[in-house]
Amino acid sequence: MKRVLLAMSGGVDSSFTATLLQKEGFEVVGVYFKFHPHEEYHEKNIQNIKQVAKLLGIEYHIEDRMQEFQERVYKPFVDGYIAGLTPNPCALCNRVMKFTELIAFADKLGIEHVATGHYAITDGQFIYEGVDKTKDQSYFLFNLKREFLPRIIFPLGKRFKEDVKKEALQIPLLRSIAEQKESSEICFVQNSYIDVLKEHTQVDMPGVVVNKRGKVIGEHKGYMHYTIGKRKGFRVHGAHEPHYVVDMIPQKNIIVVGKKEELAKKRIVLRGLNMFIEKKEFDCFIKVRYRTHKVPCHVKIDENVALVELEEAVYGVAKGQAGVFYEGEKVLGGGWIV
Ligand SMILES: Nc1ncnc2c1ncn2[C@@H]1O[C@H](COP(=O)(O)OP(=O)(O)OP(=O)(O)O)[C@@H](O)[C@H]1O
């Protein structure tokens, strides 16, 4: 029987994925990784995994990767905010933690294929958007190592979240899992990223708001409270129209604000590229945040840096986020916005 190692989070998606893989004739082995140190959170998830394992009669493993997660994902997240970036820990984690550890553990167990409950599609060469556009997670997967792809299965890629939930509710032992509240977007952030940062650095430190010409026009609570495009939580004296954060100077604890048109960007530079194609110059579409539409662009790559000229302006481009290239639904690659 063909075996597959399934990354199980204890949530409805990966739990339901286990049932799909079994129906397809796989012998499923599950693995749960403890990435962050919130034991209560793990306990709840592990309870769910035990329940699924019992339902399906599958073997599962609980693996501690807290130290690695701390160094490879958590620390860069905190350091990123301190440096004035808007980090994207999930896209980073998928490359340096989740899939790396999943593949390594599969190798240890002598299993060829790995699976997750991501809403995305792969043909072993490329990643494509999942059919459920409201749940598609291809953006977060742009950074996967190419050599991983032939070993990955995404059983939910052609399914709709709503149907997954409905079907899971019909299975008695999955019912309670399907009824649980969805997990937050970043697994180690329980409430707000600000609470996480407060454990490591001083976040509340009032500073000045300046306009693009450097003139002081207001006050803010501390630069880490803001991301590019934010228009609330700071004061601009005598402002009659909305002002948006257009830049920040972390070393001086200054945020720069401007009107909507000053937020517009038609040129973006990406570094730390991960490409699934060899071409160095091409036309495609780019997504500069998770929840946004794709914009047509022209890309030129030189020495692992991509210069992207956009056909229409985008608003709220934040350094540290991922820029992901698409051709239709296919992910061509991407990099980090600088
Ligand atoms: N701690 C973990 N250990 C092992 N696998 C995990 C873990 N967290 C997430 N995964 C895997 O990554 C996939 C996507 O994770 P994400 O956090 O986006 O979950 P999700 O879409 O809410 O799915 P789920 O309902 O399965 O939690 C999960 O479906 C699962 O396969």
Automatic annotation (TrEMBL):
Swiss-Prot/TrEMBL keywords: ATP-binding, Cytoplasm, Disulfide bond, Nucleotide-binding, RNA-binding, Transferase, tRNA processing, tRNA-binding
Principal location: cytoplasm
Keyword Transferase set for record: yes
Location of the region described as Interaction with tRNA in the Swiss-Prot/TrEMBL record: 135-137, 289-290
InterPro entries to which the protein is assigned, alphabetical: MnmA-like, MnmA-like_C, MnmA-like_central, MnmA-like_central_sf, Rossmann-like_a/b/a_fold
Site (Interaction with tRNA): 118, 321
Active site residues according to the UniProt entry: 93, 187
GO molecular function: ATP binding; tRNA binding; tRNA-uridine 2-sulfurtransferase activity
Binding site for ATP: 7-14, 33, 117
An individual GO BP term: tRNA wobble position uridine thiolation
Annotated ranges, domain tRNA-specific 2-thiouridylase MnmA-like central: 195-259
Compartment(s): Cytoplasm
UniProt key word Electron transport: no
Family: Belongs to the MnmA/TRMU family.
NCBIfam families in alphabetical order: PRK00143.1, trmU
Name of the molecule in the record: tRNA-specific 2-thiouridylase MnmA
Gene name of the encoded protein: mnmA
